[in-house]
Amino acid sequence: MTEWDEPEYRAGQIFKWLHSGVRSFDEMTDIPKALRDRLAERFYITVPEVVSKQVSKDGTIKYLWRLTDGNTVESVIMSYRHGYTVCISSQVGCRMGCRFCASTLGGLVRNLSASEMVDQVLFSQLDSGNRISNIVLMGIGEPLDNYDNVLRFLQLISDPRGMNIGQRHISVSTCGLVEKVDKLGADKLQFTLSVSLHAPDDETRSHLMPVNRAYGVERVLKACHAYFKRTGRRVSYEYAMIDGVNDTPRHARLLADKLKKTQNQQSHVNLILLNKVTETKLAPSTRGNMQAFVKILQDSGINVTVRRTLGGDIDASCGQLRRKNPGYDTEAGRKDSK
Ligand code: SAH
Questions:
Q1: Dihedral through CA 306, CA 311, CA 314, CA 320, nearest 10?
Q2: At 59, phi and psi to the nearest 5?
C-alpha cells in the first residue's frame, strides 16, 4: 500500500476483508472505489467452491473443494468436546507413495498456496457455521514437502486480525522428511509435530513407505529427538495398525526398545486402526492384536493412545482423502486435470 502511495492502514483493512470470506474487491466497502479497481486489475481472490459436502452419522463433515484452477482437494471438520477441529490438505495429491493411503494414488499435481490452506479453514467455518478452534495438517499431501507455503500459512492463520488460531492449536503431520524436521527445529515453532512412523524397522517401513529408503527409522527418530531438545515440544508418533504387517508382538517390542533408546523423554505413540482404502489389499489389525500391542508398549513405559475413528461412513478418516474430480472420474480420482 505504501508503494502505491496509500495509507498503511489500508493493508490492515484488506487483510481483514480477505479473512472474512469476501469474493471480490468490491465487497471491501471501506476501501475507495479507485483502489478497489486497481486491486482487481493486479490481483485475484481465491475462493474455493464446494463441489460436495457429506455429513457422517457421527457429525463429521467432509468438503470437496474446487480450487480456482479446477483442481480439487478435501477437508474434514471433526467435532470434539473442546470444539471443532478442521483437517486440511497441503497439496493437490501427494508424491510420497505410502502403500496404505488413498491421497497418494494419483501422485502429486501441485503444492497448495498459503491462502488455499487458509481458505480451507475459513470456508469450512463459514459454510458449516462451526467456529473452528483447532487445525490439523493431516489431509491430502505432505506438509513438509511444501515447507515455505506451510510456514507462511501458520503465520497467516495465527494473525489476530485474521482467523487468530494459535500454533498451540495446530498439529502438523509428516512422513518424516528429516532435513525439514531439522529446519523446523531451528525455527523454534510452537505447533505439535506428529510423525508417521508405522513400523520400528527399516524392512517393514520401507515396504510400507518408500520415503523410508531416503530417511530410515533411526534417522527419523534421531531428528525427532533433536527437535524435542531444541523446541521443548514432544513429538507424537502415528502408527497405523495393519493386520500381519506391522502389528505383531515383535514389532511392539522393537518399537518400545527403539523409542526408549533414542528418546530420553517419554514418547507418545498414537495408534490408528488402518482405515480401508479399496485399492490396497491391506486390512486393519484384529482387536486382539491391537490390545496386545498396546499392552507391550504400556508395560515398557511408553505413552499410548488409540485414535478414535471419525467419519468412516463417508471416507473421511485418516488416509481416505483424495483429490477426486466429479464429472471427470469419480472412482479412482486419478485422471483429473493435471
Ligand atoms: N503426509 C503426512 C500427512 C498425512 S496425515 C503424513 O504422512 O504424516 C494422515 C495420517 O494418516 C498419516 O499418519 C498417515 O500415515 C495416516 N494414514 C494414511 N493412510 C491411512 C489408512 N489407510 N489408515 C489409517 N491411517 C492412515
A1: -40
A2: 95, -10
Which helix (DSSP H) or strand (DSSP E) does residue 183 occupy?
helix 178-187
The structure's pTM equals: 0.93
What are the residue ranges of CATH 3.20.20.70 in the chain? 75-321
Specify whether the backbone of 160 is left (phi greater than 0), alpha (psi in -120 to 50) or beta.
alpha
CA-CA-CA-CA torsion sign (119, 122, 127, 133): positive
Q: Is 74 known to be catalytic? A: yes
Give the pLDDT confidence of 208-218 residue by residue, as tens digits. 999 999 999 99
Residues of the chain scoring pLDDT < 70: 264-266, 327-338
Residue 318 falls in the annotated catalytic set: yes
| CATH architecture observed for domain 75-321 | Alpha-Beta Barrel (3.20)
Q: Is 71 in the pocket of ligand 1 (CB under 6 A)?
A: no
Q: Is 173 in the pocket of ligand 1 (CB under 6 A)?
A: yes
With cell 527445529, the residue in question is 185
Q: Rounded to whole angstroms, how far apart are CA atoms 128 and 110?
A: 27
